[in-house]
Amino acid sequence: MARILMVDDDQDFLDAATAILSGKGYDVITASDPEEGERKIKSENPDLILLDIMMVNPDDGIALAHKLRKQNINIPIVMLSGVGKVTGYSYGKCDSVLPCDDFLEKPVSPQILLEKIAKILDK
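RESULT FIELD:
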């Protein structure tokens, strides 16, 4: 089964998503900040990255995604953010500003999370 790296500073989200993904047979790796995430990307070679946009700094996830793409690391990235619930702002579109393969707004239902992962991995 596929190996998924989740990079997020929300431990509750990591715990819940790990339970959901592991329950479906995925090999789950977690990191709580961009630096740890980058190390694990290089050491663990995941098939997919779930990457929170806002961690310690508001653009940590975006900065890491740009860094990975500049290093020609083309592992699929699904960006996550709960900022829309607070600000009304919606990222929702992957482009040169938000270098990802897809986007999910938190909170995300287990069904949608699993569907999105399956869709990306099937490409």
